[in-house]
Design brief:
With 202 residues, this protein is α/β, with parallel strands linked by helices. It has seven helices and eight strands; from the N terminus they run E-E-E-H-E-E-H-H-H-H-E-H-E-H-E.
Length: 202
């Protein structure tokens, strides 16, 4: 069965453990990972993305570049919303896909020509999500990590974002880090508590 397998993963900073003995198997599909702030969810995402190295354990099943949506939009301030999404490559076809995706997420064509500083926080969040979704389709591998992807979105725009994630990430191993218990049902995803992945302390 294809999927992401994690075995006895551990990580500490300045000798202070973040987590240890983490074991999980995430099959193709979407899983929502829950847990209180500071329990290690984002650290796990950073390890899986290659931004951090674990102190112990292994993981396997990732192929190709990992798509990682950070909690913060991390947009290029000098680029317009459209340019931020379309920077993944050149050509009119990719630009048209970027524009189509942004409009599906509720931004107007006028909004797409604005720089991040001229957009609301929720708009910037959707621009970042659009960039991640487009990368997943054009160049990304089999694994997508979304850290609080719907943060700051009102119910209407969240519904648009959820619809895009469900449709465009089919066939991917998608891990959604969230504090909202509603997200799993909206995404038709499995809900997993971060604490349930950890081996009991001896």
């Amino acid at each position: 069965m294809n999927g992401l397998k994690i075995e006895n993963l551990g990580k500490a900073y300045a000798k202070k453990p973040v987590f240890a003995g983490l074991n999980a198997f995430f099959p193709t599909g979407t899983v929502c990972l829950f847990g209180p702030s500071g329990c290690g969810k984002t650290t796990l995402a950073r390890i899986l993305s290659g931004l951090e190295k674990p102190d112990a354990g292994t993981f396997s099943g990732i192929s190709g570049p990992v798509v990682y949506l950070f909690q913060e939009p991390r947009l290029f301030p000098a680029f317009t919303a459209l340019e931020n999404v379309a920077l993944l490559g050149r050509g009119n076809s990719l630009r048209e896909k970027a524009l189509g995706l942004l409009t599906r997420l509720g931004l107007s064509e006028e909004d797409c020509q604005k720089k991040p500083s001229a957009l609301s926080g929720g708009m910037n969040q959707r621009v970042a999500l659009a960039r991640a979704l487009l990368f997943a389709e054009n160049g990304g591998g089999n694994t997508v990590l979304l850290d609080e992807p719907f943060k700051g979105l009102d119910p209407a725009t969240k519904g648009l974002a959820v619809g895009c994630v469900k449709e465009l990430l089919r066939g991917k191993i998608t891990l959604v880090i969230t504090h909202d218990g509603e997200d799993a049902s909206l995404l038709s995803a499995e809900a997993v508590a971060f604490s349930s992945l950890l081996s009991p302390a001896i």
